[in-house]
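pinning this so it doesn't scroll away 📌
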Amino acid sequence: MALSGIEIYKLLPKTNCKDCGVPTCMAFAMKLASGQAELSLCPHVSEESKAKLSHAAAPPIRTVTIGAGERTVKVGGETVQFRHEKTFYNPTGIALRVTDKEPDSLVEAKLNNFNRNVYERVGLKLKADLVLIDAESGNAEKFAALVQKVAGLTLAPLILRSENPEVLKAGLEKVANRKPLVGPATTENSKAMAEIAKSKGLPLIVHGKDLESLVALSSELQAAGLNDLVLDTGTRAIGKAFEEQVMIRRAVIAAQNKALGFPTITFPCLMTDDLLKEALYASVFIAKYAGIVTLSDVPGEVLFPLLLERMNIFTDPQRPMATSPGIYEINGPTADSPVLITTNFSLTYFIVSGEVENSKLPAWLIVFNTEGLSVVTAWAAGKFAADGIAAYVKKCGIDQKVSNQRLVIPGMVAGLSGELEEELAGWKIIIGPREAQHITPFLKELK
């Protein structure tokens, strides 16, 4: 159970020394309670208090790391049931499944999709995260050969899946240093699987026949000293699987069920033969509440919408994504090129800059600091006002870059034009389109 600010304050030194960068211990306690600071910033907290606070600060859903070095994926670590209560932390891992029954040409084509389909959006690189290698044949040699092949084609974190411990060991010999997720451990093989995971320090998939058996098996493995677990309920029907994901999250957050306090893995790829249905099922699990979703292939038309959904769900709702304010050059502008202005809300910036870039016409883009708010929201909050815009235009240096002083403002705030003309002597204020999709024809007419 998370501690309140007052409860945390009682465990702090109460010296108000400011060594943590905060004026008082009470203010620091409030920051700790809201997740805006780390306990390590206080150099004077006692070991006893540190132990209590660290235990209280541990997320109810354990964070599990898959992979080694720079190429790792973290899943779990969540603290709330609903995103608006705080935020979600570790985005759902999207895994590509390949099997040792598939021909090499198909495996290579899938991995080509996996490696190639990387997208940039609001300054982030979006891509699939893991490759699950499934010992579908049950043959140790075939599985080991596929593991070696996949390891040579991608540096992404791996998941090795076989219920046969000996088959799993054969594949693991090829990639143990890459710290893959392995399993599944079942009621039949749990001791052997636990030994494999424990000896190599690997995270382990726990596979139950139902939630009751999953709880029992998870508790047994924790008692054996295994703490990095990933839960698979075993259900391959979308309706029931969805219900189980919600039940697990609720049991952990509301009832503090320690046996279920781990990220989950789901298998849309085993629920249907239709790739688009797979994507639909995966979208459900990204929203509620899978740590990993597994797909049979990741072509762009399947992957890209899931990446956007994931990005939106795992963006902190309390902290708008913002772009650095400043002057941006697009398509090699000259002194005669028009100047556009927008806010530093990342999505607004990337949409506007993308449309200007697609127009192939040179332009200057001023990004004005509105603390990450969109145009209309910033205008309503008084953060995108004529006096502030005019002051920034004067000091940012754009007047030294252009001779034909034309400032294009978003059509949504056309009412600012008169005030801006008064504030910016010598500048011609032009009202731009209301929608970004109309920027290209607007610039062509402006030219």
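📌 and the second one:
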Amino acid sequence: MSRVLTVFLLLILLSSCGQAGSVDIASQQTQAFQNALLTATFSLPSPTASATLPPPTSTPEPAATITPGRTPPVQPGVFTTSLLNLVDQPSQYIEDYCGYLRNKWDPTKSAPGTVVMPIMFHSITDGAVTSADQIHVSQFQQLIKDLRDQGFEAISMTQFVDFMYENAKIPQRSVLLIVDDRKRSEYFETHFRPLYNDYGWVVVNAWISHPDTAPYLWEENAWLEQQGYVDHQAHGVIHNINMTSDSTDEYIRGELFGSIEAFQLHFSKIPTAIIWPGGSFTSRSVEIAREAGYKVGFTINPRGPVMFNWVPQGISLDPMRPSYIPEGDIHDPLMTLPRYWDTDASYHIDTVRQIGNEAASYAETNKAAELEYYDIVCAPEIGEMPGGQP
């Protein structure tokens, strides 16, 4: 066992050493922010034993009815890329293979390779940067410019959820801007209103529904919600006490259902996303979030971008990134989604673009086999592929 562990650690070390220059700088900035964020919140739960995600099925089980005299072709495995960390592996979450293929190749929906880059923001300052979770306004403006230069467009949480579940049409390079914690209206009016006015970009606010929230903060943010460019989503109630393996069901329910009740009262809406406070999540908190009706959940683990039926997950505890809670043992990728950090997001934009391009190429290579499988196995059950796909 010790020999296997030694080889595993050596592979991780080699993969990290292979990324030089700006990536090293980005890793340092990322780790600094992670340490600061963990210090600001209560301790994270100790990871359980390393979990391994089940391997993808190369050929799905045929449906009960197939076209007589035709053998379904072997189906491709999950798209993988060397641009992810070795410890992070893409996971699929749709069990209905025929439904997945139908949404994937429907010409009215997002093309294969459409990619989303979720980015987490905390504080933007025009003065001195005094903490690891702050960025200077010039760095924020450069990040927006870099996203624009590479063809990214911001989407809302509603668009994101519809994309992840049904492959709804979104820009092929999309970004989901998520601002954590309670903010004054001035914060959004200064930094994000210009993006809405100039490009139609919206921003998500991970809102803390704490009982000590001043009435003027509720009023200002209700006004922002009405403006149409700030989309508030849940970030807990007490917030600074993370949901861990030690949390009672009563506390977890208070964080999740309590957010819903506060949103209904102040924002006249029901949140569809839980941005996990402190980035901490457990199997039980995910179960209760599903019970409450949440559609997606976000960690603070910057493992990579996401695509339709494709989410990078940590399959085990990573000695090089020990603060990242592995998501693999949760078995619900949509509730443990990754997020990049604003402090180093610019370093990763081109990587996200490349992953999308690789995925598009991989899909095109396997298109004929997937469409043939659909025609033989799926069409007799759920109908022909929309749009007259061959």
